[in-house]
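Exercise (ungraded).
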Amino acid sequence: MPEALLAMRGITKRFPGVTANDGVSFDLRPGEIHALVGENGAGKTTLMKILYGLHHPDSGSIEIRGRPASIRGPREAIRLGIGMVHQHFMLFPPFSVLENVTIGEESSVAGILKPAVPRRRIRALVEENRLAVDPDAKVEELSVGQQQRVEILKILYRGAEILVFDEPTAVLTPQEAEDLFRTFREMVRQGKGIIFISHKLDEVLAIADRITVIRQGRVVETMDRASATKPRIAELMVGKPVLLDVERPPFQPGAVVLEILELKIRSSRGYLVVDGLTLSVRGGEIYGVAGVEGNGQTELVKAVAEGLEAESGRVLLEGRDLGRCGVRERRARGIAHIPEDRQKEGLLLPFSLAWNIALGRHDKPPYVSRLRILNEKAVRERARATIERFDIRTPSEDTPANALSGGNQQKAVVAREIETGARLLVAAQPTRGVDIGATEFIHRQLLQARADGRAVLLVSADLDELLALSDRIGVIYKGRIVREFDHDRAAREEVGLAMTGGSIHA
Amino acid sequence: MRSRGSVRNTVLERAAPFIGFLASAVVLVAIVIVLGENPGRAFEAIYKFTFSNAAKAAQVLSVSIPYYISGLAVALAFKAGVFNMGVEGQYFVGGFTAALAGIYLKLPPLIHIPIVVLAAMLGGALWALIPALLKVRRGIHEVITTILFNNIAVALVTYFVNNPFSGIQKGVSLEPQTKKIAASAVFQKLNGLFRAVGWNVPDYVYLDYSLIVAVVMGLVIWFLLSRTRSGFEIRAVGTSIDVSRYAGIKVKKVQIGAFLASGALAGLIGLQEIFAIREFYTYSLASGLGFDGVAISLIGRNSPIGVIFSAGLFGFLRQAGYGLQLFTKVPNSVTYAIQGLMILFIVVINEVLIRVVRALRKKEAL
């Protein structure tokens, strides 16, 4: 067995009131992809921050290539060959790929930049690692997948041997994820080691050599891929058996609730982002919208839930044209909306959880009196009931939303929108960046809404989620629904193919 | 029930102004020593001019009144995410419209005083209207428009006071000014009232009706922000426009409303000087009060209650500056430097503490 690239032994890190890592041991061999899985708050991030020198362990040791290392900061981590690709990219959009990669390590003679040398090196790295990206392109012109490649180039350029990826596929299309995994394989072939943090167990099983599960700051188990199964990992993560495939009662469609006819929306840049889109959703139906990001999903959701101005076409709710209704009126007529980005759109982060649960209905009784005076008591009482019913983990209803974990923030948003009792639920990326436990919970809520006879328009980048939940899947491509699949006819490959504009019938 | 942790968090969240105050006091001591003065003497001078007796304390309160109203005006706009840098101009215009109502209307005091107050608010709101509309309709940033409108306001009132509404009485004063405010609109002093309850406020200190205006406005704004739906929507818009829009809040309406209300409050800043102290209007009213409001609002964390303290602090510093000037070698301008430094300290310390509290909360929620 080759000497370990990295060995972390007995790492313990306490924060006031919580032990984030409790005697964690973790190692990485050269040429290995080692997946680190666990729910949000389990301690993965803390462990990686310790590795990167952002936190210092209270006890425990780190060895790199057999040598004890005390990592005092990121600069030292980089020197030791540790590189990290964060979930949120740290790039300068107006700068070129080359400038972004070499930043801080520019090659210059007497203060004058000499880009030729780094350009050659970057080209070589691109070649060796199958990281198709042009060194002279501007970062702002790149797709998300390409930007991620720039991040990878950045750490390879600095000689990283131990590469940490924090949920790298969360922002990628299935195709881009495939490309990333190909890069992974290239890199491990060269003897590098990869630590892969992910919530998506299918990916973990597909790519990892070993899998370490941590729960509540402790390593529960490290296993080889051969002995790992999806239900087993999920159970280890959550601490109890998880129903991965939620039960889906038979489809009993009701009357049409949402009807979109020939909708066209022009973007601020002047082209049609939604281009003659037609679809309808019935009561008791989950209609899934599949597609590569940027094909008009965001605008479709905004047109239905927020009245984004359309150039032509109609949006009807229970047969009535919504026309130019504003959000308030749409909500009153029976549209609930789980927004794409809970932090940016869904929650007033510094406000208490209680007020966030009231948000959107804050202008209706019992939250306000007729004199428009707020009823704080009602807000808190209702919030307590909601927190209880939806099992939102929080110290109290007074806790600000920004103190909750991502999963619990999302649960609060979902709970709030479900509780409106609206006829139509528009759910955009409802489980993005959410851990397994919360994902299962949110899926059950969507199915419950369906069982209650409500219509659900589900937009998701997670194809497995769509396949599991949707009664029908419409594939959106260049602003229109190009194909529709019934639940039992939707094959993963065929839907995936349609997403890229290809079709057997086209 | 509140846990011990949440009490600690609340204390930490509010601690910045106090730490900043102490830090700038330390710097003041250093400056005093560098200037070759005895720090003990400097503090004595400050004490003598601020809290040594009832009269001095009342004077601090008196000069704090316009500061408070100005801070409140800026704070209300800030709460809605609107940067009203035009409080200065709104104060000049609001004061002018109020003065017109005070000079030319013939009414009994019981009606005349409230009318004057309303006129001040109307004038201030009016001066905020165009920048507000330009912001929501055309997306022109209010920082630019309001600052430009400040200049227009000064030019406008200068013209009015010099020409159509000039009231210079030959031989009395050469300062351009309007006619005198009608007796029925003059703000009477409340000093007698304070003396009746045992606070010995001498006659030369102005604790007039404008104090009542400030208190009432503070209560109204506090209630509006914390207890009403409109206040909730103002705070929501100030926190995130995206979330507010998502929740069905009419963002533009809220912004215009808060902007105009801020302007209306700004209109009240000059009441004390115009209606109690001078009893006429002039364009050489105390300048800079509107901009002080920005700092006062910031230090008071944009809260109607916090602004009480920061306005008081500004009043205190002003009097302290006079004390230093008179009794020591320290020039008055040092207090302005200390003011600036204090704001810097508070803003930075506040940011640090906010981060600390956020991290602590996150750990609790895990």
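Further reading is listed at the end of the chapter. For now, observe: The interface with chain B takes residues 15-18, 20, 41, 306, 326-328, 330-331, 337, 339, 344-351, 355, 359-360, 362-363, 368, 372-374, 393-396, 398-400, 402-405, 408 of chain A (CB under 8 Å). Residues 353 and 401 of chain A are 5 Å apart (CA to CA).
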